């Protein structure tokens, strides 16, 4: 601390001194002649100075008056003054200057779609409902423990993360839910922020819905015709109704919007997990009370014009598996962006990951993101929809699959990749053909044989109840597909999955008319629900393509140590070639960085296309893909053509589509399907009864 | 500044560098400030050049650094010590903490209805000058920084259209929804915050606590026309009622929100298209109680002075939040004119005009507050009950009355004489003459762009009104206002009415302009509902004004101003041209309490179903700040009031929390008002 400070001081002093000294020479000598007293004192003083500060210049009048303390003050004052001056300049600067500078560098910016379409004469027509996704919605504190005294009404999640930044453990305690019930722990009430502010910005400057809202406002939308369906994204969907009556609120607000807009139906924009939440809502609202909203069988037909799903993880995302298994994924990128270093440093005393995992595992909603549809959708041991079917052996298949790597826009070399194997222990098992893998069943291995010292761990994780033998058994199973991954999770975290399984289901329905499918746990799985009877409704799936998206993982058993998570992604594993899909232990596929195309596009491309058993009334569906293009330069911020999961909400092409539909256009009007990827081909490969 | 700092430094040098003689120090000081005491002038000057240069800049830096360091140190200490001090204060600040221990739990959903100027407004579409302010606060929160950055732009966006009373073309300013729309009108100026926090303590949260944000600049019916605010409120109340197990809501309106909610009560039961179509019995089904805080049921005299000269201490927020802006030249010395221009486009201001005319507010020679004693500092209130209200302190009052008979009924008087002379001595029918004259005016618009309607008037007639001694009562006042602000009154009187209904069955009273006037509407048929009037007393409140012509007769100047030179004797109600009466600093007791104390008490024609009403007064105690304050806005943090609200929200009835609680002369005043019930 003191070292750099003294350095700066001497640096600045020497600078100023040398400047002064130049003019000093003659003056000081004259002064001395005139005033011998001063000269004497000065000389004495200089000697002292020399000793004190090791300043070689004897005639340095200036510095002798300045002690260390003064120099510190001077330095601080200097910095502060400059800072304030800059701040002042910044504040007095007209707001148009940054834009002006940007335009000077990059040339004229394209008009935002709102402005452009307004010139075309588009005006607000249908009211718009925004459904935020996981982690992007704000949460605020309504009742807290002692450590959160005085933070009532402050944001716990989103915004600047308020005062909680200072007390991470307190924060974790409040943001976690109760392990048994899936609700708030006693004495704590954390509730979603309501209104558009809930998810316009996630953190200061990090937009979520703000750009969409701004462009809607350009064509005449305002608060009365926009509604942010905020809900607590930590809870399971049905629990948001039980605790907060969130679904009832959405129903009532949509009814109000339709009533106050002269019967114009709403356009719904769900994003990310909001997509599943809204699917759940549509089933809920038509189910008779008390289990549902009692809106009657044609509620959706009467109130909804179109659902424009943005970045839709209809069928889940492999990311959530890694999150559940070892909380290691590169995701919750927002969390990292918000608190860089927090994850990696030892702020919480070396146990950051376990704290996060514990917090994460109490959130029921995360179960909704586990891949749905099992091997039928995500691929088995030796096939996956993204790669050409291999008949006999992997070797033969490679020749065929090379075709995919060409000009088809694949983001990496899919040669020999078995996407169906979501988790493999070691690279060899990820590539070897299934017939050569001997798998050991792990389910019956007793869990006893506890880890040493596990009783010292003050953090609750079910891993601590697993013994070495169990861990080995899990690793010996070698390869897991979307089907067997559920067994794995059930094995390593039985309590957790028991809670999750009562709210979510991941299968494919054989017979949709089976009365068991009236239960709410099936409502958010598009493969186990029927769409409502609303032939005039439209469903869009809008998603980004062209970004590497996590699709499978290579794991290893972590070196045994006290209280650690026994499995880790093996980041040392890389593919053979430069453009291999395997990097850092992660197999990537095409998608929007979070959701693979197969999850976002399949339902609209095939599952619901035309009249199918999942879509008995023949609701029209459209796939709209947005090819990722990185921002041209830093000034563009997060880009206007981005395809990544959240930045997609700032994509001009997407916003234009949204505005046109909100202003009354149909899917045909805006050009029907717009597909860059091979989703249609891939869908064909998926063999599902429709 | 710099010299101070050098002197500060001096002792330090003496200590640290012992050998440094005082003479050299002296020299430094002298050099720096050019005190020519030294022997060698020329050398001094040369030295001065370089020393002066060096010390000035460096000294500044040094001082800044010194101050900053000290400041940070203090800040650090403050933050270190805060947790200890907070712990001790909390229980007292939070009546809810105590009530929670008693076992109180929030049962009924609560709807908060903010008043005028307390709600936040944000920009949705603006002129080029407001670039980059999309969805940023214009009013409340950080909005006032914009006032300082671009004042004219800010005013332009807050104005409404002169004729429609809606947004001007190209501008859309909308209320900020949500609980945090009205909780902080400006940083450090709490409005709802304390109440919300207390409610949260006993179990309230987003699903059973709602802030009914509306654009407080618009007339009430226009909030529905433009923003669907009434429909939203209806839907919200229905939702909360259903979602909380069919528990009726408790509504807590404040200030103008009171009139707004009255309007809502009528609107919701009126069939569409004019109303909400909730049907008869909607209120009975959905509302448990209305706890009006600082209610301006019958208007406030402040609104009159505000319209006439933008001068009342109203828009008190303006001054409180941006002190100096009004008086200094920030807006080019025209602050008041600008304020007037903007606030005259706000229809809602008209809703605050005194209602009920002379019957309520008194005529030239009579007013209900006749026996009022103005010595607020020494006055002691006695708890009045009907049995003893004639007994107490009658002597003092008699004496006082003879000495200084305040004619509160004259809300506006031109000249002090007009405010005290008996009515028979005053000239009559001046206004009509002038009106006549004005009709045949040859109007020269030499003022260029008209700022206020004063610029469109004949300056002669303006002066004539002011020159003649004349007083206006709550009834004749409207003639005056119609004369000086014809457009505004035209626009606003389509939305508000200020009279007393003779026959409430008259079908004309189905029009929405009567809905917010308690004297021209019937309360809904909801016998189980309760209405509370909760307000502060014991604070001098503006009741009537003495006006004069303003000295300058230039264009764009407001021709009238309050004659601040007029003062009464000690202990008089007249101070700086304003007569004060009892109230909460903004709303006189009469306006806040009369309806609950008499107009609706029992079964009257205004309250046909006999809804129970309770008057709850909160007396101002000497240290009038913080948790005991009872002024119009601060009362929202008054712990006694909060406790009452919490108890009602937890299911208590008016009887259970103690029925009427009256400190002022409310009952006797009401008795003097001769109104057919």
UniProtKB/TrEMBL annotation, chain A:
This is phospholipid:diacylglycerol acyltransferase. One of its GO terms (biological process) is triglyceride biosynthetic process. SUPFAM superfamilies: alpha/beta-Hydrolases (SSF53474). Residues 24-51, 388-409 are annotated as: Disordered. Its main location: membrane. GO terms for cellular component: membrane. Belongs to the AB hydrolase superfamily. Lipase family. One of its GO terms (molecular function) is phospholipid:diacylglycerol acyltransferase activity. The keyword Acyltransferase applies. It comes from the Eukaryota. Residues 388-405 have a biased composition (Polar residues). Its EC number is 2.3.1.158. Residues 29-51 have a biased composition (Basic and acidic residues). It is found in: Membrane. It is a single-pass membrane protein. It catalyses: a glycerophospholipid + a 1,2-diacyl-sn-glycerol = a monoacylglycerophospholipid + a triacyl-sn-glycerol. The chain crosses the membrane at residues 68-90. InterPro entries: AB_hydrolase_fold, LACT/PDAT_acylTrfase. It comes from Gossypium klotzschianum. Keywords: Acyltransferase, Membrane, Transferase, Transmembrane, Transmembrane helix.
Automatic annotation (TrEMBL), chain B:
One of its GO terms (molecular function) is O-acyltransferase activity. InterPro entries: AB_hydrolase_fold, LACT/PDAT_acylTrfase. It comes from the Eukaryota. GO terms for biological process: lipid metabolic process. Transmembrane segments: none annotated. Pfam families: LCAT. Gene3D superfamilies: alpha/beta hydrolase (3.40.50.1820). PANTHER family: LECITHIN-CHOLESTEROL ACYLTRANSFERASE-RELATED. This is Phospholipid:diacylglycerol acyltransferase 2. The lineage of its organism: Eukaryota, Viridiplantae, Streptophyta, Embryophyta, Tracheophyta.
């Amino acid at each position: 601390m003191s070292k750099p400070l003294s350095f700066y001081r001497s640096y600045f002093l020497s600078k100023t001194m040398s400047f002064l000294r130049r003019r000093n020479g003659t003056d000081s000598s004259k002064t001395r002649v005139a005033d011998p007293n001063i000269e004497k004192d000065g000389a004495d003083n200089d000697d002292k100075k020399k000793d004190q500060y090791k300043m070689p210049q004897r005639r340095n009048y200036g510095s002798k008056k300045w002690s260390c303390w003064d120099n510190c003050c001077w330095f601080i004052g200097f910095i502060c003054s400059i800072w304030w001056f800059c701040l002042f300049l910044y504040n007095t600067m007209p707001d148009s200057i940054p834009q002006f500078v940007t335009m000077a560098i990059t040339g004229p910016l394209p008009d935002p779609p709102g402005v452009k379409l307004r010139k075309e004469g588009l005006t607000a027509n249908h009211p718009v409902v925004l459904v935020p996704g996981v982690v992007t919605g704000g949460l605020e504190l309504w009742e807290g423990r002692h450590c959160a005294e005085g933070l009532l009404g402050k944001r716990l999640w989103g915004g600047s993360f308020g005062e909680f930044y200072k007390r991470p453990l307190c924060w974790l305690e409040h943001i976690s839910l109760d392990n048994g019930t899936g609700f708030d722990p006693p004495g704590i009430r954390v509730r979603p922020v309501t209104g558009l502010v809930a998810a316009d910005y996630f953190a200061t400057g990090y937009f979520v819905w703000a750009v969409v809202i701004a462009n809607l406002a350009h064509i005449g939308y305002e608060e009365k015709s926009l509604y942010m369906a905020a809900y607590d994204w930590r809870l399971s969907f049905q629990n948001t109704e039980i605790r907060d009556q969130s679904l009832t609120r959405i129903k009532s607000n949509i009814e109000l919007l339709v009533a106050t807009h002269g019967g114009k139906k709403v356009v719904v924009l769900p994003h990310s997990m909001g997509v599943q939440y809204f699917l759940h809502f549509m089933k809920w609202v038509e189910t008779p009370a008390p289990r549902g909203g009692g809106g009657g069988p044609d509620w959706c037909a009467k109130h909804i014009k179109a659902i424009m799903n943005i970045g839709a993880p209809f069928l889940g995302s492999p990311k959530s598996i890694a999150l559940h298994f070892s909380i290691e994924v590169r995701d919750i990128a927002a969390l990292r962006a918000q608190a860089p270093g927090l994850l990696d440093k030892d702020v919480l005393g070396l146990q950051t990951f376990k704290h996060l995992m514990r917090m994460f595992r109490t959130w029921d909603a995360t179960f909704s993101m586990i891949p749905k549809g099992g091997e039928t959708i995500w691929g088995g041991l030796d096939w996956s929809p993204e790669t050409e079917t291999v008949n006999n052996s992997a070797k033969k298949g490679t020749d065929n699959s090379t075709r995919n790597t060409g000009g088809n826009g694949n983001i990496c070399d899919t040669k020999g990749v078995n996407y169906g194997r979501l988790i493999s222990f070691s690279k060899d098992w990820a590539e070897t053909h299934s017939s050569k893998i001997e798998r050991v069943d792990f389910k019956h291995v007793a869990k006893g044989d506890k880890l040493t010292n596990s009783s010292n761990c003050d953090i609750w994780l079910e891993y601590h109840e697993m013994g070495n033998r169990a861990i080995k058994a899990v690793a010996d199973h070698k390869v897991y597909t979307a089907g067997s991954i559920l067994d794995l999770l059930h094995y390593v975290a039985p309590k957790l999955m028991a809670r999750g399984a009562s709210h979510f289901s991941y299968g494919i329905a054989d017979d949709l008319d089976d009365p068991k499918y009236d239960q709410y746990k099936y409502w958010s799985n598009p493969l186990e629900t029927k769409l409502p009877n609303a032939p005039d409704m439209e469903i869009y799936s809008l998603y980004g393509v062209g970004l590497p998206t996590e699709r499978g993982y290579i794991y290893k058993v972590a070196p045994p140590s006290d209280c650690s998570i026994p499995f880790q992604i093996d980041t040392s594993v890389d593919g053979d070639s430069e453009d291999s899909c395997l990097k850092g232990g992660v197999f990537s596929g095409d998608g929007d960085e979070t959701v693979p195309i197969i999850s976002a596009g399949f339902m609209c491309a095939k599952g619901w296309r035309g009249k199918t058993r999942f879509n008995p009334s023949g609701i029209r569906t459209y796939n709209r893909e947005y090819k990722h293009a990185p921002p041209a330069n830093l000034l563009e911020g997060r880009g206007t053509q981005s395809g990544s999961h959240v930045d997609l909400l700032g994509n001009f092409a997407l916003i234009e589509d949204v505005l046109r539909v909100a202003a009354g256009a149909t899917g045909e009007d805006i050009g029907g399907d717009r597909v860059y990827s091979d989703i249609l081909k891939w869908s064909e490969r998926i063999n599902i009864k429709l | 500044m710099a010299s101070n700092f050098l002197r500060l430094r001096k002792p330090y040098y003496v200590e640290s560098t012992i050998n440094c003689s005082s003479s050299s120090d002296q020299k430094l000081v002298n050099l720096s400030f050019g005190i020519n005491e030294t022997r060698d002038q020329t050398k001094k000057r040369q030295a001065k050049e370089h020393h002066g240069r060096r010390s000035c800049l460096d000294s500044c830096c040094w001082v800044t650094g010194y101050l900053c360091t000290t400041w940070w140190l203090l800040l650090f200490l403050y933050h270190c010590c805060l947790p200890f001090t907070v712990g001790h204060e909390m229980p007292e600040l939070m009546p809810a903490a105590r009530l929670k221990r008693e076992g109180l739990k929030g049962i009924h959903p609560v709807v908060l209805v903010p008043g005028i100027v307390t709600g936040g407004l944000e920009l949705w579409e603006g002129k080029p000058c407001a670039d980059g302010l999309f969805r940023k606060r214009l009013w409340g929160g950080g909005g006032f920084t914009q006032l300082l950055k671009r004042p004219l732009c800010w005013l332009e966006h807050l104005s409404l259209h002169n004729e429609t009373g809606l947004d001007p073309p190209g501008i859309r300013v909308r209320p900020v929804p949500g609980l945090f729309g009205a909780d902080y009108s400006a940083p450090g100026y709490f409005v709802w915050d304390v109440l919300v926090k207390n409610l949260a303590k006993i179990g309230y949260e987003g699903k059973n606590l709602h802030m009914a944000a509306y654009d407080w600049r618009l007339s009430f019916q226009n909030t529905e026309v433009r923003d669907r605010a009434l429909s939203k409120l209806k839907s919200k109340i229905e939702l909360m009622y259903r979602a909380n197990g069919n528990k009726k809501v408790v509504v807590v309106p404040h200030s103008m929100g009171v009139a707004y909610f009255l309007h809502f009560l009528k609107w919701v039961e009126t069939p569409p298209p004019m109303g909400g179509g909730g049907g008869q019995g909607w209120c009975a089904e959905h509302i448990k109680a209305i706890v009006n805080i600082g209610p301006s049921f019958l208007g406030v005299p402040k609104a009159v002075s505000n319209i006439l000269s933008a001068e009342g201490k109203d828009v008190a927020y303006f001054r409180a939040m941006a002190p100096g802006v009004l008086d200094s030249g920030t807006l080019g010395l025209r602050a008041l004119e600008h304020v007037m221009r903007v606030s005259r486009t706000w229809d809602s201001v008209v809703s605050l005009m005194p209602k009920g005319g002379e019957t309520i507010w008194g005529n030239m020679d009579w007013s209900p507050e006749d026996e009022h004693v103005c010595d607020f500092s020494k006055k002691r209130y006695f708890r009045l009950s009907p049995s003893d209200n004639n007994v107490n302190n009658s002597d003092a009052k008699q004496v006082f009355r003879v000495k200084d008979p305040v004619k509160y009924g004259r809300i506006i008087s031109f000249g002090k004489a007009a405010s005290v002379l008996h009515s028979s001595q005053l000239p009559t029918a001046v206004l009509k003459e002038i009106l006549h004259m004005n009709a045949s005016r040859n109007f020269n618009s030499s003022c260029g762009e008209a700022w206020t309607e004063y610029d469109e008037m004949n300056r002669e007639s303006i002066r004539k009104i002011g020159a003649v001694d004349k007083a206006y009562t709550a009834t004749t006042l409207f003639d005056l206002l119609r004369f000086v602000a014809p457009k505004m009154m035209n626009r606003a009187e389509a939305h508000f009415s200020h009279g007393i209904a003779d026959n409430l069955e008259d079908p004309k009273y189905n029009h929405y302009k009567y809905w917010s006037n308690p004297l021209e509407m019937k309360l809904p048929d909801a016998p189980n509902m309760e209405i509370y009037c909760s307000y502060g007393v014991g604070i001098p409140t503006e009741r009537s004004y003495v006006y004069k012509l303003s000295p300058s007769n230039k264009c764009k100047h407001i021709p009238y101003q309050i004659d601040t030179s007029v003062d009464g004797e000690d202990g008089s109600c007249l101070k700086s041209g304003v007569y004060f009466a009892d109230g909460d600093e903004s709303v006189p007791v009469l306006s806040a309490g009369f309806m609950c104390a008499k107009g609706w008490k029992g079964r009257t024609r205004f309250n046909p179903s006999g809804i129970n009403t309770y008057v709850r007064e909160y007396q101002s105690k000497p240290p009038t700040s913080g948790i005991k304050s009872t002024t119009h806005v601060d009362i929202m943090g008054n712990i006694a009031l909060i406790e009452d609200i919490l108890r009602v929200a937890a299911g208590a009835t008016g009887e259970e929390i103690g029925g009427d609680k009256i400190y002022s002369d409310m009952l006797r005043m009401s008795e003097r008002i001769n109104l057919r019930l």
